[in-house]
C-alpha cells in the first residue's frame, strides 16, 4: 500500500484531444475538490473549432486546476502534474511543466503516424526527452477498454471511457472523494444504462488501479482550506453573472429580460438564464446581435430590466442601439465577456482589449458607466452593481468580464439576499409638471435633482404618454429638438449625470501595509489574481509594493488622482497594449508604466513577480 504525503497545494492539468473529455474530467475533479473543502481556481483552455483535427497541436483541449489548503487567487502558472492523452497534448504542454514534474501519459496514442503529425521523429517516451520528469506511461485506453469489456460497447465507445479511468486514478492519487462523481455519472447517463455503467466501471477501475499497482509509491492529500462559516458552492463567472442579474432585477422588483445572441465565451449566461423561468426571467434568443440589444432596450422601455450579453464582435454590432439607450436614458445592462481579437480573433482565448471600445466605442458624445469584475465570484457583485446603477441613474451600463473569468470556477460563499439593499425604480405614476397653458402634464425629461435621472414611465400609464426615439430631445418635454443651445445643454447634462455617479461609488482602497511603498500596482478586471499572487511573493522577498484594483472604470473613484500622484511609479498590468494606462495618463497627467501581455492567457504571476521586483529595485536605485 502506498504511503500518504501531505501537500499544501497542487496544480494539475488534464490535456488531450478536443474529443477526449478533458473539460468534463477537469470539472468533475474540481467539483469533488470543492466539496472536500480546498480553495480552488481553474483555467479551462480549448480550441474554437467544434472538433479540431484529431491529434493536432491546435486541437488540444486542456483543463487546469489549482487547489490548496489556503487562499489562492490564480489557477497557477505551471502544472505540477500533466495528464496527457496523446502526443499532441504532451508536446503542447510540456514546455509549461517544471523539471521534476509528474507526467501521466496514455501510451496507446503514441503511434508513428500520430508522432509524425506533430513533427516528432521518435517517441519522447523512449528517446530521453522526458528524462527530467517523473513519468508514468501506461495504456490508459487499453486499461479502460478492458474494464468495460462486459458492457457491450463498440471499440470506439469503450475507448472513450479512458477519461473516467484517468479521473479515477487521479482521484485516488490525491485522495479526492468519489461519491459525487458516481452520482453525477448515474444521473447524466440515466437514459443510457450501458454508457452509465461503463463509465462508472472505468472510474472505479482507475481508482483501484492506483490503489493496487506499484507504479505509485505515494498518494497525496491536501487538507481543506480554512474559510469563513457559511454555505459554499462552486461557481463559474458566467453563472455568477447570471445570478447577479437575477438578484438585481429581483431587488428592483422588475422582470429580468435577456435579449441575446449566442457568442463565445458569453453563451453560458444565456443558457443559465433560460433555465430560470421559475424566477420570472424571460429570455429571447434573437436572430442577430442587433436584434438582441434592440429587444432588451424595448423591454426596458416597457418597464422591465433589459439585459444583453455578448463578446467583442457583438459589441461592435450593438453600438448604435447602446447609443440609443444613452439618448433615451433608459436602464440597460450590457455584459461583454471579452475574448481575443480583433474581428473573430481567438474566440476561446481570453483578453482585456475592449476597454476603450466600452468607454468610447459609440458615435457622438455618449458617456456611460463601465464596470469590470475581478474574479469569477466577483461577477455576481459586479452584475448586481451594474443593475443598481442602470436603474437608479436611467442609463446603459457596460459590465466587462472575460473568457478567463467566465469559464473559470471558484468556491463562492452564498450571499444573504436579505442583506442586499433594495433598488428603487421609482416609476412615474402621475403628472410632474405643467404645460404652457398651466395644465398638469408629464415631462419625461424632468430630472431628479440629485441623480439627474429622468422620469421613467411605463407605457400605457394614463396621462404619461410621451415621445421616444434617437433624435435629440428637448429638455423636460422630450420633444425633438435641433436647437444648438438645447443640444449642448443635453450633452453636458448627460455627462454630468455620469460624473455624479462617482459620488455614489466607494473610494479606491489601497493595500499598502507599511505605507512606505513607492511602487503602486493598479489593475482592473481579471488581472486581480496574478497581481495579488505576484505581490505576495514580492513582499516575501522583503520588498514593498502597494496594490489597488478598479471595479468602476467610468466614472473612476474620486480619490484615484490623489492616489496615483502619491506613488513614484504606477505599474498597470493589462491583457492589452495599455488601454487603461492611456486613459489614466490622459486624465490625471501621471506617467504610467505599462505592463502588457496579449497571449490569450492570463498574465503569468511568475513573470510579473520578477518584473515587479525589477521595477522596485530600479526605483530604489534612482535615490542612490
TrEMBL record:
Domain Pyruvate:ferredoxin oxidoreductase core intervals: 517-587
A family per Pfam: POR_N
Presence of keyword Oxidoreductase: yes
Domain named Pyruvate/ketoisovalerate oxidoreductase catalytic: residues: 19-207
InterPro entries referenced in this protein's UniProt entry, alphabetically: 2-oxoacid/accept_OxRdtase_asu (IPR022367), PFOR_II (IPR033412), Pyruvate:ferred/Flavod_OxRd (IPR050722), Pyrv/ketoisovalerate_OxRed_cat (IPR019752), Pyrv_Fd/Flavodoxin_OxRdtase_N (IPR002880), Pyrv_flavodox_OxRed_cen (IPR002869), THDP-binding (IPR029061), Transketo_C/PFOR_II (IPR009014)
SUPFAM superfamilies: Pyruvate-ferredoxin oxidoreductase, PFOR, domain III, Thiamin diphosphate-binding fold (THDP-binding), TK C-terminal domain-like
Stretches assigned to the Pyruvate flavodoxin/ferredoxin oxidoreductase pyrimidine binding domain: 250-475
Keywords noted in UniProt: Oxidoreductase
Family matches, as PANTHER family: 2-OXOGLUTARATE OXIDOREDUCTASE SUBUNIT KORA, PYRUVATE-FLAVODOXIN OXIDOREDUCTASE-RELATED
NCBIfam families the UniProt entry points to: OAFO_sf
Identification of the protein by name: 2-oxoacid:acceptor oxidoreductase subunit alpha
Organism: Tessaracoccus lubricantis
Amino acid at each position: 500500500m502506498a504511503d500518504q504525503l501531505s501537500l499544501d497545494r497542487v496544480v494539475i492539468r488534464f490535456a488531450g484531444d478536443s474529443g477526449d473529455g478533458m473539460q468534463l474530467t477537469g470539472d468533475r475533479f474540481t467539483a469533488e475538490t470543492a466539496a472536500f473543502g480546498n480553495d480552488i481556481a481553474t483555467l479551462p483552455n480549448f480550441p474554437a473549432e467544434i472538433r479540431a483535427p484529431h491529434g493536432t497541436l491546435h486541437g488540444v483541449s486542456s483543463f487546469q486546476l489549482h487547489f490548496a489548503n489556503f487562499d489562492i487567487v490564480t489557477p497557477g502558472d505551471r502544472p505540477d502534474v500533466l495528464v496527457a492523452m496523446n502526443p499532441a497534448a504532451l508536446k503542447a504542454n510540456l514546455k509549461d511543466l517544471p523539471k521534476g514534474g509528474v507526467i501521466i501519459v496514455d501510451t496507446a496514442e503514441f503511434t508513428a503516424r500520430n508522432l509524425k503529425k506533430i513533427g516528432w521523429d521518435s517517441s519522447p517516451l523512449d528517446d530521453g526527452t522526458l528524462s527530467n520528469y517523473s513519468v508514468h506511461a501506461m495504456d490508459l485506453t487499453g486499461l479502460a477498454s478492458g474494464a468495460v469489456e462486459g458492457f457491450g460497447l463498440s471499440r470506439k465507445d469503450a475507448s472513450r471511457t479512458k477519461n473516467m479511468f484517468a479521473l479515477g486514478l487521479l482521484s485516488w492519487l490525491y485522495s479526492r472523494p468519489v461519491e459525487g462523481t458516481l452520482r453525477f455519472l448515474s444521473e447524466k447517463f440515466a437514459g443510457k444504462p450501458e454508457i452509465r455503467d461503463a463509465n462508472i466501471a472505468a472510474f472505479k477501475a482507475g481508482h483501484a488501479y492506483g490503489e493496487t499497482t506499484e507504479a505509485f509509491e505515494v498518494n497525496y492529500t491536501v487538507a481543506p482550506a480554512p474559510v469563513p462559516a457559511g454555505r459554499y458552492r462552486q461557481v463559474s463567472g458566467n453563472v455568477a453573472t447570471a445570478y447577479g442579474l437575477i438578484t438585481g432585477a429581483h431587488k428592483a422588483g422588475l422582470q429580468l429580460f435577456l435579449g441575446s445572441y449566442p457568442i463565445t465565451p458569453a453563451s453560458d449566461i444565456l443558457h443559465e438564464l433560460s433555465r430560470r423561468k421559475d424566477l420570472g426571467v424571460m429570455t429571447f434568443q434573437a436572430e442577430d446581435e442587433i436584434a438582441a440589444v434592440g429587444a432588451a432596450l424595448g423591454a426596458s422601455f416597457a418597464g422591465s430590466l433589459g439585459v444583453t450579453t455578448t463578446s467583442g464582435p457583438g459589441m461592435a454590432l450593438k453600438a448604435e442601439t447602446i447609443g440609443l439607450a444613452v439618448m433615451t436614458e433608459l436602464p440597460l445592462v450590457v455584459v461583454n465577456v471579452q475574448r481575443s481579437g480583433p474581428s473573430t480573433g481567438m474566440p476561446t482565448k481570453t483578453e482585456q482589449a475592449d476597454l476603450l471600445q466600452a468607454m468610447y466605442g459609440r458615435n457622438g458624445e455618449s458617456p456611460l458607466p463601465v464596470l469590470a469584475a475581478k474574479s469569477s465570484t466577483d461577477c455576481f457583485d459586479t452584475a448586481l452593481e451594474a443593475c443598481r446603477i442602470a436603474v437608479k441613474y436611467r442609463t446603459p451600463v457596460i459590465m466587462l468580464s472575460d473568457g478567463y473569468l467566465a469559464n473559470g470556477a471558484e468556491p463562492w460563499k452564498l450571499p444573504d439576499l436579505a442583506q442586499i439593499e433594495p433598488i428603487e425604480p421609482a416609476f412615474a405614476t402621475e403628472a410632474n409638471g405643467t404645460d404652457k397653458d398651466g395644465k398638469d402634464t408629464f415631462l419625461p425629461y424632468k430630472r431628479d435633482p440629485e441623480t439627474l435621472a429622468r422620469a421613467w414611465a411605463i407605457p400605457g400609464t394614463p396621462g404619461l404618454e410621451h415621445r421616444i426615439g434617437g433624435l435629440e430631445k428637448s429638455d423636460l418635454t422630450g420633444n425633438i429638438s435641433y436647437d444648438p443651445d438645447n443640444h449642448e445643454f443635453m450633452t453636458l447634462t448627460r455627462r454630468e449625470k455620469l460624473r455624479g455617479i462617482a459620488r455614489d461609488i466607494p473610494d479606491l482602497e489601497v493595500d499598502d501595509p507599511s505605507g512606505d511603498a513607492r511602487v503602486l500596482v493598479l489593475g482592473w478586471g481579471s488581472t486581480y489574481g496574478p497581481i495579488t499572487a505576484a505581490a505576495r511573493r514580492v513582499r516575501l522577498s522583503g520588498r514593498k509594493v502597494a496594490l489597488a484594483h478598479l471595479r468602476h472604470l467610468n466614472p473612476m473613484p474620486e480619490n484615484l488622482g490623489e492616489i496615483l500622484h502619491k506613488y513614484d511609479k504606477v505599474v498597470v498590468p493589462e491583457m492589452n497594449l495599455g488601454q487603461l494606462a492611456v486613459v489614466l495618463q490622459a486624465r490625471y497627467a501621471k506617467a504610467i508604466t505599462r505592463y502588457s501581455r496579449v497571449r490569450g492567457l492570463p498574465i503569468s504571476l511568475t513573470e510579473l513577480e520578477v518584473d515587479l521586483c525589477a521595477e522596485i529595485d530600479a526605483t530604489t536605485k534612482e535615490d542612490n
